[in-house]
Fold:
Amino acid sequence: MTEVMHSAASLDGPAPSMGGAADARLPLVTFYLTDRCNSRCVTCDYWRHGRLDVSLQSIAALLPDLRKLHTRVALLSGGEPLMNPEWRAIAALLRDAGLRVWLLTAGLALAKHAADAAALCETITVSLDGTQADTYRAIRGLDAFDKVCEGIRAVVSRGASVGLRVTLQRANYPELERFVGLAHELGVHQVSFLAVDVANAHAFARENVNAGDLPLAPADLPRFAAGIDALERYHAQDFHSGFIAESPQKLRRIHQYFAAIHGLADFPAVRCNAPEFSAVVGADARVSPCFFIPGTGVDTRAGLINALGEPSMVAQRARIRDGEHAECARCVCSMWRDPRRLAETGFGLKERAHA
Structure:
């Protein structure tokens, strides 16, 4: 998951101050419903120390600002959002307010919540980092591969629009092509790939920044390159249709990223304006400019618009636009949208089929 935030920026010009400008826009907001998690991932530390759950009341208090900001998509993330006991009520509240609800989940409890998730969420993205039980257990720390697949099938069978998100790392990159086959087998609408982040502790609440064996080693790079070539050769239609979300060129950027970690290439150039159209609200109510960059400590107790307009946050967004944040140079998830078309984009959400 990797969603981001910014002050409500005008779609046709520079970002205004958050003083109630009529043309302010914040189309996408990510809410961390909890910082607790039921996975035990080697890439993340939320499960070690998460304690907080967001309340329905706190989300309801933000609805007036979401209307003023013309927010259209609410991404429910965490931690594991399905662990919040009020997640159904929160999703229903946002949906009834006219927002499209997007659920990002590890899927461990998806089978249990399948009926509600399919009914309340426009799109469901499931993080799945293995195509077999052994790989899944090595990365996620639990013997739950079959349970997650059960949950995916359960929401697909109920008509939900479901995507898989794969975090590529040393333990699973040999399964690159098998992930595409598994995605077809599970009946999802799309599979996407992201490089494991090894530079940013904030993104995954990591207390130990040491990346260990997460990234590909230099000796892995030729095999990974060959896997991308094979995927392009044998799955051209999946690229063309968008079933594989990234183009072959974007997958090769992941290869370049891993090469750069070892000083064998430059880090791929990052083009991202996510903080211009989206925001992240943490389980502690603090606002961040994006998933990978911590905010300035400002929270939403006085409202989202006030938080985004606080001088320290305005200054932080300006520094990000000016390329002054080191996190951006090594970001694994660049997200750029044409400001002139933000009113049209669904941020990758696929309309569900209706009978």
Observations:
- The first strand starts at residue 28 and ends at 32.
- The chain has one domain: 28-341.
